[in-house]
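Bumping my old thread because nobody answered last time. Still need a sequence for this structure:
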């Protein structure tokens, strides 16, 4: 039973296309916000807004809540400076797309025997409308 590879292929493809469109627009080097170690653990995380500041839990990050047109929300961490800046809705869409890219990478690292995949449908069928600080 390989649900992870069969579940939501149409919506996974939409996520891949969203990420590819962003990569084509901003360049591959401007999408490398997360670095993994060879064992799959996260080594380093950069702010997805500026791509220069390393985000460290409890030191220099602020959680931003992205609000969507379907009434849902998504939490993501940015450096304090970017989170408190006047970001455009386009920038918020880019940040959310970078989170989609991260989830695609994480799903790809799952063993083929892993019984559960990501339900991509609600993640790709929503559009950011605004954002606010969580803390």
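Sorry it took so long. Here it is:
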């Amino acid at each position: 039973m390989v649900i992870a590879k069969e579940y939501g292929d149409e919506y996974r493809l939409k996520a891949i296309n969203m990420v590819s469109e962003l990569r084509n627009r901003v360049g591959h080097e401007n999408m490398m916000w997360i670095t993994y170690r060879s064992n799959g653990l996260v080594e380093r995380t950069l702010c997805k807004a500026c791509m220069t500041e390393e985000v460290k839990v409890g030191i220099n990050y602020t959680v931003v809540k992205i609000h969507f047109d379907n009434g849902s929300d998504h939490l993501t961490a940015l450096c304090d400076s970017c989170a408190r800046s006047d970001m455009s809705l386009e920038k918020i869409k880019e940040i959310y797309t970078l989170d989609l890219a991260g989830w695609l990478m994480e799903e790809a690292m799952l063993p083929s025997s892993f019984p559960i995949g990501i339900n991509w449908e609600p993640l790709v069928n929503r559009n950011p409308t605004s954002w606010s600080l969580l803390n």
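The first helix runs from residue 3 to 6. Let me know if any region looks off to you.
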